[in-house]
TrEMBL record:
Naturally occurring in which organism (per UniProt): Larsenimonas rhizosphaerae
Positions of post-translational 4-aspartylphosphate modification: D56
SMART domains in the record: AAA (SM00382), REC (SM00448)
InterPro entries hit by this protein: AAA+_ATPase, AAA_lid_NorR, CheY-like_superfamily, Homeodomain-like_sf, P-loop_NTPase, Sig_transdc_resp-reg_receiver, Sigma_54_int, Sigma_54_int_dom_ATP-bd_2
MF terms (GO), sorted A to Z: ATP binding; DNA binding
Name this polypeptide is given: Two-component system response regulator GlrR
Length: 447
């Protein structure tokens, strides 16, 4: 990653040292944000994820190692460098064993600082070349989504199977395509199929191919998608809906790396990376016997969970603007954006259908708008006509929980004791709820 693009977060309760380090690093071309406590650092990372964190070791309330452990837990892959005036070999060994990237002792030598920062940035996922074209189709400024993208970039370089989970309409195929583009297979075929959209025999034929005369109407031999994707990536969408009989055949292909077309006696070698996705609870499907456990572990070497649109609400204005430009260009329309009132309505909506629903609403608004700016009334009409989109019970409950927690935290200016009392929960349970929904109390404190 080039210095001009890297964003560094400095954490120290010594304001004069913050100024000094900030000036040094900015002179090198880095973009630097400074905060004076671990809590402030976590709040900032939640709203804008940096490329690297440099933190003092000894600070009041939350020290550098405690901050590191929180960062490691919430934002895997984000490197941390620890700075301290109390450096010792045992401290450094302990810190690096736990995963701290580097340990620098004050007074900090300028060249050592630059070398440590450059080294950390070279080894982070985002720095694997400056080319971000692999993720161009995923529009986001959300820290939650950026974390998923960091993980996606890391797994892309290997050939492991990835299971992408998340609610319907959250962009699972886009993420699969991004992983493919970031991989060494990026210039080979990317082929997607929805396993729940076809009847069993047709799905089997599509995946594995068939020989001539394999069944009534099979007038010609048909190459399956495994063969078509050879050397590239096969994306199995809604894998949780695949019939059990086909799950057995898919498992055999993954184990043997050979595919036998329907009605054929000949096996064909295939070199295909498998990415899959589902919105179903696969654990429950395994318990009920609807999904094979051995296949699940083959597919779920790495799991990436995509957030719902309500979990990345800060992306709604950005996505809406991007989609308007995209739809207008495609339809040669003069529509350029939303009025402030219309945008406010979009931001305040729950989006049970996630990004897919937002796309539908934007397309309808662009089609019906008689002016360059989409009005609040058009948005209201589009949302009202889309009420048939319902979330699952679990998604609806999670959305309500998150909205409720945000509301009580705003009412109490981030006072957890008061908020927990209003919610009828003890502090421990309340903190667990906040962690489940990635909510930082510091964001709601009165300034």
């Amino acid at each position: 990653m080039s210095a001009g693009k890297a964003h560094l977060l400095l954490v120290d309760d010594d304001a004069s040292l913050l100024r000094l380090l900030s000036m040094r690093l900015e002179s090198r071309g880095y973009r630097v944000t400074t905060v004076e406590s671990g809590r402030e650092a976590l709040a900032h990372i939640q709203s804008e994820r940096p490329d690297l964190v440099l933190s003092d070791l000894r600070m009041d309330e939350m020290d550098g190692m405690e901050l590191f452990r929180e960062v490691q837990s919430r934002h895997p892959g984000l490197p941390v460098i620890i700075l301290t005036a109390h450096g010792s070999i045992p401290d450094a060994v302990s810190a690096t064993q736990q995963g701290v990237f580097s340990f620098l002792t004050k007074p900090i030598d300028k060249d050592e600082l630059f070398a440590a920062v450059d080294d950390a940035l070279r080894q982070t996922p985002a720095s694997a070349g400056n080319d971000d074209a692999w993720r161009d189709e995923i529009v986001t400024r959300s820290a939650v989504m950026e974390q998923v993208l960091d993980q996606a970039r890391m797994v892309a370089v290997s050939d492991v199977s990835v299971l992408i989970t998340g609610p319907s309409g959250s962009g699972k195929e886009l993420m699969a395509n991004a992983i493919h583009r970031a991989s060494s297979r990026g210039n080979r075929p990317f082929i997607a199929i929805n396993c729940g959209a076809l009847p069993e025999q047709l799905l089997e034929s599509e995946l594995f191919g068939h020989a001539r005369g394999a069944f009534t109407g099979a007038m010609h031999a048909h190459e399956g998608l495994f063969q078509a994707a050879d050397g590239g990536t096969l994306f199995l969408d809604e894998i949780g809906d695949m019939p059990l009989a086909l799950q057995v055949k898919l498992l055999r292909v993954l184990q043997e790396r050979h595919v036998r077309p329907l009605g054929s006696t000949r096996s064909i070698p295939v070199d295909v990376r498998i990415l899959s996705a589902t919105h179903r609870d696969v654990n429950k499907a395994m318990e009920s016997g609807d999904f094979r456990e051995d296949l699940y572990y083959r597919l779920n070497v790495v799991n990436l969970r995509l957030p719902s649109l309500s979990e990345r609400a800060e992306d709604i204005p950005l996505l809406a603007k991007h989609l308007v430009h995209q739809v207008s260009a495609r339809n040669q329309s003069s529509v350029k954006g939303f009025s402030p009132e219309a945008l406010s309505l979009l931001v305040g909506y729950g989006w049970p259908g996630n990004v897919r629903q937002l796309v539908n609403v934007v397309e309808q608004c662009v089609a019906l708008s008689t002016s360059p700016i989409i009005s609040q009334g058009l948005v209201s009409q589009a949302l009202a006509s889309d009420e048939s989109v319902l979330p699952s019970f679990n998604d609806a409950r999670a959305g309500f929980e998150r909205s409720y927690l945000i509301k009580v935290l705003k009412m109490t200016d981030g006072n957890v004791t008061q908020a927990a009392r209003i919610a009828g929960r003890n502090r421990t349970d309340f903190y667990k709820l906040l962690a489940r929904h990635d909510l930082e109390v510091a964001r709601f404190k009165a300034s």
